[in-house]
Amino acid sequence: MYELNACKIKYKSIYLDSETATIDSARKVLVFNNLPLIQVRGDYNILKIKGITLNSSNTSNFTGHTWDVRLENVKYNGQSYFNSDAIATPIIARFLVDSVRTYQEPSYLEIDKQDINNLTLNVISDHGHGLTKNSTDIKMFINIEIEEHYY
Questions:
Q1: Each residue's pLDDT tens digit, 18-27
Q2: The domain made up of 8-150 is a member of CATH 2.60.120
Q3: How far is CA 7 from CA 10, 35, 111, in A?
Q4: How many helices (H) and strands (E) does the chain have?
């Protein structure tokens, strides 16, 4: 009997809430220090964003903007990553929020084998502000999935 799919895949989900992060005063840099140890051990590993939600007392603070989310503190394959803005920090999500739904560009990042116990996200809108506008904080919830492929 032949096995058509010899590659085994393990999935790991990470749920992040901006309220549990250490955030700078401009609310652009979110540091998540209290994560449980995430061991990435696959022969080939992919990090993807499965979902993003923004919330605020005034929804006009985040609607109509394009948002970029960049990832720090994670080793990634620089040979397979290209970003036309010449900044070495990879964009893991770019999304637009309108009055009804969120439109997200699919993005994947090949990451190396590593132990992850903290993550840093840089969140900036197209107008240059972070998770605050008109003196009102914007909350962000993000679901990151890591696919570990074993050959």
A1: 999 999 999 9
A2: yes
A3: 10, 28, 18
A4: 0, 14
